[in-house]
Amino acid sequence: xxxxxxxxxxxxxxxxxxxxxxxxxxxxxxxxxxxxxxxxxxxxxxxxxxxxxxxxxxxxxxxxxxxxxxxxxxxxxxxxxxxxxxxxxxxxxxxxxxxxxxxxxxxxxxxxxxxxxxxxxxxxxxxxxxxxxxxxxxxxxxxxxxxxxxxxxxxxxxxxxxxxxxxxxxxxxxxxxxxxxxxxxxxxxxxxxxxxxxx
Amino acid sequence: xxxxxxxxxxxxxxxxxxxxxxxxxxxxxxxxxxxxxxxxxxxxxxxxxxxxxxxxxxxxxxxxxxxxxxxxxxxxxxxxxxxxxxxxxxxxxxxxxxxxxxxxxxxxxxxxxxxxxxxxxxxxxxxxxxxxxxxxxxxxxxxxxxxxxxxxxxxxxxxxxxxxxxxxxxxxxxxxxxxxxxxxxxxxxxxxxxxxxxxxxxxxxxxxxxxxxxxxxxxxxxxxxxxxxxxxxxxxxxxxxxxxxxxxxxxxxxxxxxxxxxxxxxxxxxxxxxxxxxxxxxxxxxxxxxxxxxxxxxxxxxxxxxxxxxxxxxxxxxxxxxxxxxxxxxxxxxxxxxxxxxxxxxxxxxxxxxxxxxxxxxxxxxxxxxxxxxxxxxxxxxxxxxxxxxxxxxxxxx
Lengths: 199, 398
Description:
CATH superfamily of chain A: NAC domain
Number of strands of chain B: 9
CATH class of chain A: Mainly Beta
Number of helices of chain A: 2
Oligomer: heterodimer
Shape of chain A: globular
Structural class of chain B: alpha+beta
Strand content of chain A: 25-35%
Helix content of chain A: 10-25%
Strand content of chain B: 15-25%
Number of helices of chain B: 17
Distance between the termini of chain B: 65 Å
Number of strands of chain A: 7
Shape of chain B: globular
Order of helices and strands of chain A: EHEEEEEEH
């Protein structure tokens, strides 16, 4: 798991929105090598979400990949439909990206069946506040040398998961919870404290 | 890829350190004990006595991302040169062990033990409980004869006690985190953890509820009773997904749905005597003769396990606790939590309420836990009797 990294046990790829935009998407758009270079680039519309296994980077029950943003998000058996409002991704107080949430539906529009497959699609925001796909990217004046070619600046990075698996918590979160028994013992301690004047 | 920058090891962006218990024990702690080099040295050595829990976040930061749990190695000091107890006091408070140590298994055998500790501010008898929790893992270096034997529940318990005495010295690896308040964030929306689980009609709430999905003991109980969580859920009537029902569902389904143990009817919160004896659970109630009656009653129930389920009593209790958790704190609720004396100045309302709930469930859980660990009904009730007659009674009586 975690791609071709040689990290010791216990490390998992579980990036925050900010990390995805700053460390991966920004570098991809600037044609800088991503470090670690673990997120593959896929043609966005070629695959249905269940086909991502083995093609995208799998981390827990989430899949990550780069893609070029397109207007239509139709794949072989269905399409991605945006839901909700776009979220801003911030870093150090300034907006650096945009996070769109999409749901996969099987079939043709208007007679499609919604699925549990969810995609978070991250876009770069340029300094004028527009998305870099809007064409103003040519004028970007990044500290990192932004490539002037528009082709390279409409990259998105995507996270795909099935929502019914509580996917945002992909790693044995239960270790970090107190079990029911722990809670019980914890509360029993109080009663010990009350009645026992501590040996 | 490289995991070192300018000669300094670092965590590449996007990665979180969240090892399994097996990884902690078998990789990190084993290497630490053997003084072997660890590839990426992210777990620091900490002198537990010199570090307050709120400073751990800064000290034990790994990588750049947000973190909910922190890890460190600690070398346990004995409290007294001659004894086996460990000194876990800091300048501001102390770590106090709670519950029973849990055995950690890999696929093959037992590999170590986990102790759960809670941080109290202040000094020993008067400490104020905090939300800081520590899981302290130690390696299991028992003779292979023991570990190779079939790891039954009873074995684990006896082995736990034997290793308790011997292993109070040396390196341990610790995970520190802040306790989550489920009754507070249950209705608070998706947040980070929700992840879209709210739309599927409670399915996620049930399957992901850490209160019992992760709890071996409760799994054992359910297994013992020959039912799965799913069946239990379908049996119980649909109810609002309030915080309280979330808290109570496991026990309610285990007990109420099964008619395994019946509590006396609960008319109203103001029926103080009734409320008290049932809240504190039969076995913990003190010497007003209730214990014997309750036990006899419970034994009846055991011999006739298919009598009335008594679910109404529990539903009543459920409602009571629900109103309690919703913050309607008045004089009568004090009677719910034992005798009210412990609800001293440093207990906030929430804690009081939760303690009430937890305590009422405590003896029941212990009972059933005993049942799961033992082999049959006899064990259950001998456990219950000994618990009632010796330990609890003597502690509880004022």
